[in-house]
Design goal:
By secondary structure, this protein is an alpha+beta fold. The protein contains five helices and eight strands, in the order βαββββαβααβαβ. Helix content is about 25%, strand content about 30%. Helix 3 runs antiparallel to helix 5.
């Protein structure tokens, strides 16, 4: 993941970096609006204590917006911006197909390995079934050959390694 710095307006960055700003409870989301290819995020930040306080209202505009996963109920206290992040890979990476041409002696272990790698790498940000070619991962793990998944190569590489360790002889096409 490659984080971008100096994206925020200097005034907002100064407020976030201020000793008066507390990350826990200092940011309040008001609304998210999706307008054509723009995303508008209205929020306020609270600086100071109860006696001496300041509330700043902001609107963050994202131009050329493609997709987002914003949970207004579960926001942190700060913003991070990335030029390279696994959530961006479906937009910036080459799409490919991941096949396998052999079975495995232990499909349950393969299933557990894929599930573990997926959750430790992508957490709940990408659903496991998003790039997998079946409603049943166990069915794929017990199959002797076929299309395992379709999507960004950088994501499918994680599954490739698990399939290879299990002896399923994976390969990419496209």
């Amino acid at each position: 993941m490659t984080e971008l710095n100096d994206i925020l307006p200097i005034e907002l960055k100064t407020s976030f970096d201020s000793l008066d700003y507390e990350e826990e409870g200092g940011l309040t989301a008001h609304s998210i609006k999706y307008l054509d290819n723009e995303l508008h995020f209205d929020f306020s930040i609270f600086l100071g204590d109860v006696e001496q306080n300041e509330t700043q209202n902001w609107q963050l505009k994202v131009l050329n917006y493609r997709d987002s996963r914003i949970d207004i109920q579960d926001l942190g206290g700060y913003f991070n911006f990335y030029s390279d992040h696994f959530l961006l890979w479906e937009f910036i990476d080459n799409e490919t197909e991941l096949y396998f041409k052999k079975g495995t002696d232990n499909p349950e272990k393969l299933l557990a390995d894929i599930y573990s790698i997926h959750n430790s790498t992508f957490d709940n940000y990408i659903p496991l079934e998003k790039f997998i070619n079946s409603n049943s991962l166990l069915t794929l793990c017990t199959s002797n050959n076929g299309l395992f998944g379709r999507g960004p190569k950088r994501i499918l590489n994680y599954y490739f390694d698990s399939l290879k360790k299990a002896g399923k002889e994976p390969y990419f096409y496209g």
